[in-house]
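Sequence, please.
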């Protein structure tokens, strides 16, 4: 997954001016990461013995306006949750339910059926697909809950009990 994201970022307009090193150019990864850290205001404490030296960071006056950052705006706080002070427990997913990976109890076949149901509901209601980073997805998200085999099996059992009771 990380390799795919790196390949996509490599061709992204936002990263084109930053000259993101290609995935295959492993010798450029560490200097690039150190340069980014320096631009964010984090100065490495010490270089491990034998590690390549960091590439010189661009000074704020020569950096393009899109990448200039104030060290006070974004800083590293080791005891307070890392970058920007956000704790990992506070992190939230932002996006469509259809962009999430399979969760516990979900089956791929049921997820595909739920996706088709969401497509049909959107067509019936006259909605257009929502454009996301992974492509167009249905706007209707509630059918996703039926991808969980436990919930689907329980609901089918309830329906059969009410019909034949």
């Amino acid at each position: 997954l990380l390799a795919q994201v790196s390949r996509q970022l490599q061709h992204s307009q936002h990263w084109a001016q930053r000259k993101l090193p290609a995935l295959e150019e492993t010798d450029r990864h560490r200097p690039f990461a150190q340069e980014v850290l320096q631009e964010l205001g984090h100065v490495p404490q010490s270089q491990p013995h034998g590690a390549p030296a960091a590439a010189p960071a661009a000074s704020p006056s020569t950096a393009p306006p899109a990448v200039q950052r104030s060290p006070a705006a974004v800083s590293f706080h080791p005891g307070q949750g890392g970058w920007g002070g956000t704790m990992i427990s506070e992190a939230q997913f932002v996006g469509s339910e259809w962009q999430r990976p399979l969760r516990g109890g979900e089956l791929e076949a049921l997820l595909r059926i739920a996706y088709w149901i969401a497509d049909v509901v959107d067509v019936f209601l006259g909605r257009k697909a929502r454009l996301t980073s992974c492509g167009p997805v249905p706007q209707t998200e509630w059918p996703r809950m039926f991808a969980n085999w436990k919930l689907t099996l329980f609901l089918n059992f309830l329906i059969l009990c009410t019909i034949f009771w």
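The longest strand covers residues 130-132.
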